[in-house]
Amino acid sequence: MLDEFVIRAILAGVGLSLATGPLGSFVVWRRMAYIGDATAHAAILGVALALAFSVSVTAGTLFVALMVGLSVSVLAGKGYAVDTSLGVLAHSALALGLVAISFVQGVRIDLNAFLFGDILTVGRGDLLVIWGGSALVLLLVLWRWSSLLTSTVSEELAASAGINPNQERLTIVLALAVVVALSLKVVGALLIASMLIVPAAAARGFANTPERMAITATAIGAISSAGGILISLFADTPAGPSIVVFAAAIFVISLLSGRRQGSS
Amino acid sequence: MNLIGTENLNVRYGSARVLEGINFEISKGEIVTIVGPNGSGKSTLIKAILGILKPEKGRVIHKTGLTIGYVPQKLSIDATLPLTVERFLSLPVRRAGEDVQRILERVGASRLESHQMSALSGGQFQRVLLARALLVNPDILILDEPTQGLDQPGVASFYGLIEDVRREMGCAVLLVSHDLHVVMSASDRVICLNQHICCEGSPQVVSEAPEYRALFGIGTGGTLALYRHVHDHHDAGDHDHQHHEKSV
Fold first, then answer.
1. Range of A141's domain?
2. Residue A72's domain is classified under what CATH number?
3. What is the pTM of this model?
4. Residue B27 and which of A70, A102, A184, B158 are 20 to 30 A apart at CA?
């Protein structure tokens, strides 16, 4: 029988996958991986702010992730070269966060937990936040599904059908910020983006419609969470990275099986 | 009754004014072609008409209850997005299977419904885009350089298809095009655009207008060929490229 903390950890991973599956698919389709990465790195600054102002870490990271996501999507919308400004913004925020945390008095924190996650210490309260937040993101994405998908295919086609593509882009950024805040505890700031991208990329090989890809990505995320946590228990490896390694392995398998299908 | 009209339309991108004082209208069943050099604001005008871009000044008026079928300039669907033709045609509104079949057959793209969008050829892709525009039973079909990237026979057959469809459905057609010698003869009216409307009228009138010749005709045989082509062949439908060569 598994210990309770293991079950809680697996439940946390599965709950998160409910949001990262569909959202990660959109991040891949819209080539927004860079925004996911930037908001996730900047989350460390959110941790510093949360400690300095004694608010919850989730609230702090949510705030910073939202700010970074919004500024990046505004810059991208105005046609700036996003690549460089994003690199500056994201890594400055990460570095500033790390420096700021060292200044926060009287707090001894484990930086590793924020950088690489600490899924094995997830408590009941955390579980509630993760499942609640994931459910919110999932509902938001399901509600906007058709509009999001249309504006992903073509912003012009969407606009001509009465959909506001800017609003749909904001929906994605908002959902991303929530997921970043939720994932910090699970896989850590450095690997959040991989939870979004790797399962979705792996799902591509097994899907022929957008809906199937989103569902498959959710399943792959959930399986990777459980698999990664079990591996980390038995092989004594860090849990967050183990989850990502598990997902990456599925991605490789999807590539190999996809190649076989392609030649037939 | 006009389907669409604009009143003193001005559009800018940042500090650059792209369109200035555009008064335009198109009525039921009319075929209007917009020509103009690169950067002349053709696509901008289309986007303003569709409501994708907000005008800086002036306004766009649609007839109440107007349905528009829009074929955009180009569309690149990321290969990571698995999207069948059938699913694409159901965006954002779900369509019945038989409607999808019927419309695909109409545009000569039958049996493509389960193909992936990213695996279509250029010509197939444009036909699917046209099918999508036709699904709404449009009063007006708006096409923004729909034949970019097609070879000459592909261009001719695509325009032939548009004319057939228009004859059947009776919709108006607003077309932006570079393929002047192919397109102009089939148009009721041609608008020559370069930030403002330089000249407008029947294909003959426009091709003879000094404003038009200043934009398109300097030092090339193209103008002459176009001019003769338009003059010699009032009847639409003969869209052979060879024919353009012969008329020089």
1. 4-263
2. 1.10.3470.10
3. 0.85
4. B158
- What is the total count of domains within chain A? 1
| Cβ contact, residue pair A156, B47, below 8 Å | yes
The structural domain count of chain B equals 1
- Asked, for residue B78, whether it belongs to a domain, the answer is no
Residue that has been written with the tokens 């690169």 in this structure? B38
Q: Which long-range contacts (CB under 8 A, 24 or more apart) does A69-77 make?
A: A69/A35, A69/A38, A69/A39, A69/A173, A69/A174, A69/A176, A69/A177, A70/A170, A70/A173, A72/A35, A72/A38, A72/A39, A72/A173, A73/A35, A73/A169, A73/A170, A73/A173, A76/A35, A77/A166, A77/A169
Interface test with A, best of B54, B80, B87, B88 (most A CBs within 10 A): B80
Chain A residues closer than 8 Å to B84 by CB: 208-209
Rounded-to-integer distance, Cα A129 and Cα A15, Å: 10
Residue ranges making up the domain that contains B32: 2-67+138-246
Give the model's pLDDT for residue A107: 64
Q: Is residue B82 domain-resident?
A: no
Q: How confident is the model over A245-259, as a mean pLDDT? A: 89
By the CB < 8 Å criterion, does B92 face chain A? yes
Q: What is the CATH number of the domain that holds B190?
A: 3.40.50.300
Digit-coded pLDDT (tens) for B23-61: 999 999 899 999 888 888 888 999 999 988 889 999 999
Instruction: Give tens-digit pLDDT for A55-97.
Output: 988 899 999 999 988 887 787 767 666 677 777 888 888 899 8
- Cβ atoms of B5 and B64 closer than 8 Å: no
CA angle B94, B31, B202 (to 5 degrees): 165
